[in-house]
Task: structure prediction
Amino acid sequence: MSLVHEIAALWREYLDGCEVGADDDFFALGGNSLIGIRIIDRVARDYGVELSVRAFYLAQTPARVAELIARGRART
Result:
């Protein structure tokens, strides 16, 4: 499974099982700040990458969040 699909599956878990595609917008899917913080914490735990709240919200899609994670992993 690609990183993008893993992130989409993670979002699906926190967004009550709604369908999540690679380019779906977090807020359009019903995401909010509390869910965002939970996902950011989970990313740190599962992938070892610390995302800022600002970076996560600006990324907005699983594809872009996956890019941030990949860049974060490359730095370590």
